[in-house]
Design a protein that fits this description.
4 strands; 504 residues; 2 domains; elongated
């Protein structure tokens, strides 16, 4: 690059230098967890000091301060574990660097939490226990504190072992266990619990099926066509417009529900409007970009980079708007109970409580998020922009379908299930020898072609190499999902009993 009068070279070099320094910092934090733990401890110390100052003179201040620190700890773990689902596929597809993934997730998670996190939250997660059956305010505060700490400890353990788990299911399990310890099994709404248990199966299966269907469609209609450019010009604008429509509807029914909850017909109308607008904008852009493009799979896949980045940002926004409640709802409930002396089903979120949740999620993401981002984006199965696009689209579509049916689903389970869905579809195509010669058909081998290295491999080795999904991650993640609620419940029950013995 030659020197220019405006100093373009110097500016570019400085920007790249800053970028590489940031990349190096992230790598150092990942390689040296002691540093990250130290920074997290400093954050919790600041939360303790701020909570202590803001609640000076308030009755039951010790409860509130302790709950503030535990809420900050829970938020750290949500950022470390749950946020990876939103940006992991984009990182695995190389649409985003690790720094880019962290920055986008941090910005949009915070924006979602602050702008759309809402002013009012349910104190009893998912309505699984009846607050009227709780003996007194002090018992209620110990119950919520136990649930919050148990959920945070379990998510921390899962993150350590590299298992993406549902933070919602973790706090549900905590409330369940502490509630039973406080008032017996009669306090539990077992109908709600049965629906939550059903979501363990429904969420990943729906996510996997929807993602695999979209990937199969793209392969059939675009990649395996003789003229991939013509096919891409036809279908890519439709797919991108569909993504815009789905995410518009997704944000209206999920991401913004705490500030505005439209009727289903209004959400559908919003989606249709965004579909038309996006198609009108994207169609000529794709047509122009396709001019002179190579008739190759790589060129087609690269068309999905920008839509995938947008999807990661929107998923992060929706996650921040919804899942910050997993950290702040129990904390807000404790603050309200300590201040008013009464137990309420719904409470307002103090500004400082919302800040603890948003800041904690961002801090946890930056310090500990790369581990789970790599797991989701790289380690389970190989990603590219097209596969990652299908994962993100599946996550949004599945949540909308589940919301319409009244099914409680986990966004974590959906996203991870979608990753496995595209991975197993890849395996299926590989086992069938799918090539450009036709969808699901093995291209005929020329009779004069000498045997390749692949042809000479033993059958057992061929079978092993065609397994494009790492089974170890499949079984470990499934095991973590199965024990999330019961383990969180046991931990919460134990913590509640200990607190009651110590404080009463």
């Amino acid at each position: 690059m030659s020197e220019t009068p405006n100093g373009f070279k110097e500016t570019t070099t400085k920007d790249l230098s800053k970028f590489f320094k940031l990349e190096r910092t992230i790598h150092d934090l990942s390689a040296k967890p002691v540093i990250a733990i130290g920074i997290a401890a400093m954050f919790l110390s600041i939360v303790w000091l701020a909570t202590h100052t803001l609640t000076a003179g308030v009755e039951n201040q010790a409860f509130i301060v302790a709950a503030g620190v535990i809420g900050g700890y829970m938020a750290l773990n949500i950022g470390a574990n749950d946020v990876a689902n939103n940006v992991g596929p984009a990182f695995g597809a190389k649409s985003l660097t690790m720094v880019g993934a962290l920055v986008i997730a941090a910005i949009f998670e915070t924006a979602g939490a602050v702008l759309a996190g809402g002013d009012v939250v349910q104190t009893i997660s998912k309505g699984i226990i009846d607050p009227a059956l709780i003996a007194d305010t002090e018992t209620f505060m110990m119950l919520m504190m136990s649930a919050l700490l148990a959920a945070a400890l379990w998510i921390n353990l899962a993150t350590f072992f590299g298992a993406p788990v549902s933070t919602t299911h973790s706090i549900v399990g905590g409330v369940l266990g502490a509630g039973i310890a406080a008032a017996g099994a009669k306090v539990v709404n077992w109908t709600v619990m049965s629906k939550i248990a059903a979501s363990w199966v429904i969420s990943p299966l729906l996510g996997a099926i929807v993602a695999a269907m979209f990937l199969a469609f793209i392969k059939n209609r675009v990649l395996y066509q003789k003229d991939t450019i013509a096919a891409a010009k036809k279908w890519v604008p439709i797919l991108v417009a569909l993504m815009a429509a789905v995410f518009a509807a997704y944000l209206s029914v999920k991401g913004l529900k705490r500030v505005w909850s439209p009727e289903p017909w209004m959400a559908a109308l919003i989606g249709a409007g965004f579909f038309s607008l996006t198609f009108a904008v994207v169609n000529p852009l794709i047509a122009k970009r396709s001019e002179g493009m190579d008739n190759s799979k790589l060129a087609i896949r690269n068309m999905f980079h920008i839509p995938l980045i947008c999807a990661a940002a929107l998923l992060s926004f929706a996650h921040g708007a919804n899942d910050v409640a997993n950290a702040v709802a129990p904390l807000a409930a404790i603050v309200n109970a300590a201040s008013t002396g009464a137990v309420s089903a719904n409470v307002e979120i103090p500004a400082w409580v919302l800040f603890v949740g948003a800041a904690g999620i961002t801090m946890g993401l930056m310090l500990f998020g790369p581990k789970l981002i790599r797991t989701i984006g790289v380690k389970i199965t190989r990603m590219n922009p097209m596969r990652a696009f299908c994962v993100s689209l599946s996550a949004a579509i599945t949540v909308i379908i589940a919301s319409a049916l009244g099914l409680p689903v986990s966004s974590t389970h959906i996203a991870v299930g979608a990753v496995f869905g595209v991975g197993f579809l890849r395996e299926y195509h590989s086992s069938k020898g799918t090539h450009m010669g036709g969808y699901g058909k093995k291209a005929p081998r020329p009779p004069d072609r000498p045997p390749s290295k692949w042809d000479l491999l033993p059958t057992e080795e061929k079978t092993r190499r065609k397994k494009l999904v790492r089974r170890s991650y499949l079984w470990s993640i499934l095991a973590a999902w199965l024990i999330t609620v019961p383990l969180s419940a046991l931990l919460a029950a134990g913590i509640f009993i200990a607190l009651k013995e110590f404080l009463v």
